[in-house]
Amino acid sequence: MNKLISPALKLLPFAALMLALLVAPFATADLTGKVVKIQDGDTITVLDKDNVQHSIRFAQIDAPESNQPWGAKSKGYLASRLAGQYVVVVRAGKDHYKRVLGTVFLSGININEEQIRTGNAWVYTKYATDKNLFGIEKQARMNKVGLWRLPENERVEPWIWRKSKNH
Q1: Known catalytic residue: 162?
Q2: Would you call 141 a catalytic residue per the annotation?
């Protein structure tokens, strides 16, 4: 009997390590709540079940600023999709403003991707890790949807716009 237990005990640390590796990606739990504010085309406020508000910055995308061409339309589209809706946010960390960075899902639809697909945001090339986003943006450009209908001189990436406006 002792010979049977000994090999099993030797595997216990390995099993614990494997369990930890499987659970680690979920250590930063998803955030679920009601969208109570749309700041702009890539930032919302979500109220969780404990009535705590969380500022959510959409990861990997960058929408036009409010004072930028298409900024109001990007915000308006996002508001039409999310205002008052319950969403799931898959967290990716925090930004330098202490906002939650994340991918927002509404009924299983990736809203970060949707903002790009509808021409309401750019792929934030500096931070993008999902290569699929670039293909979605390319398709939106080819189809001239959303901001891609604007004259070329009005299509300024938000990160360049912010620098030029000394924000």
Answers
A1: no
A2: no
Please tell me which residue in 81, 99, 117, 137 is annotated as part of the active site. 99
What residues does 91 pair with on adjacent strands?
102
Active-site residue flag, 157: no
Q: Catalytic residue, from 65, 113, 114, 137: name it.
A: 65
52 within some domain? yes
Token pair 């008052």: residue:
84
Measured distance CA(124)–CA(70) in Å, rounded: 16
Q: How many domains does the chain have?
A: 1
DSSP state, residue 151: -
For the chain, 167 residues long, give each residue's pLDDT as a single digit of tens: 555 555 655 665 655 555 555 544 444 569 999 999 999 999 999 999 999 999 999 999 999 999 999 999 999 999 999 999 999 999 999 999 999 999 999 999 999 999 999 999 999 999 999 999 999 999 999 999 999 999 999 999 999 999 987 54
Considering the domain boundaries, does residue 9 fall inside one?
A: no
* 61: β partners: 123
Q: What is the pTM of this model?
A: 0.81
CATH at 71 = 2.40.50.90
* Domain ranges, residue 61: 31-164
Residue 21 in domain: no
**What kind and span of H or E run contains 79?**
helix 71-82
